[in-house]
Design goal:
The structure is a single chain. With 208 residues, the chain is of the alpha/beta class. It has a seven-stranded mixed sheet, with helices on both faces. The radius of gyration is 16 Å and the shape is globular. The chain has helices at residues 25-28, 46-54, 67-80, 129-138, 152-163, 188-195, and strands spanning 36-40, 59-64, 85-89, 105-111, 139-149, 168-170, 201-207. It is 27% helix and 21% strand. Helix 2 links the parallel strand 1 and strand 2. The protein contains six helices and seven strands, in the order H-E-H-E-H-E-E-H-E-H-E-H-E.
Amino acid sequence: MVVRVRQHVNPLSHKYQAPIAPPNWNQVYTRPNQPLHLDLGCGKGQFLLKMAQQSPNWNFLGVEIRQPLVTQANRRRAALGLQNLCFLFGNANCSLLKHLKPGVLQGVTIQFPDPWFKRRHQKRRLVQPQLVTELAACLSPGGYLLLQSDIEEVAVEMRDCFGQHPAFVNQSDPDSWLSQNPLPATSDREEVTLEKGQPVYRTLFRRR
C-alpha cells in the first residue's frame, strides 16, 4: 500500500498544535547520556539514519510534522537495529523544546525547511524568534547549529534570525556561505540539489 504524503502542511492549523512530549530517554536510547543531536524537520530521516550509523557514540532525535514520514523513518530505524536514534511526529514550534532540559543538546540541524514563498504564508516558516530563543536554552555551550537551504532568501532569514541572538556565534564569514557540509552525512534534499548543480546555502553557528 502506497501512502500519499503531502509535500507541505500548514504548521499553524489546529491539527498541528498538539504539544510534543519529550521521549523517555532511558526507554529510547541504550545509552541515554551520550551527546544528543536534534534534527528539526527531518523529513524521511535519511540524514539521521546515516548519522546514527556513522556516530554510534551520539544519540539522535528527529522531529517531523508529516506523520507518515515519521512512521516510515522509525520502521527503517528498527530494521537497522539502531538504538541511538528516535523520530517524533509533531510541530517543532509546539512545546517540545520548552520541556527539554537546559543544555541537553550538543548539536542541531535545520535543513531545507519549507520556504513558504508567499508573504502571507511566511509566518509558517520553521525558524521563528521563539524557536531561536528555545534552542539557545537547550543547546549546550560550544554546541553547534547547522542551517542549510537551497533558497537563498530562506537561508539569509535563518542566518539573520540566529545571528541576532547573543547566544549564537557565526563560525564563518557572516557575508558568505560554507562551501562544504561540515557533517559526515547528507539529507536526500541536499543530494538532489547538488546533483542538479544548484547551490546550497549553509551557515554554522556555535553556542557561546
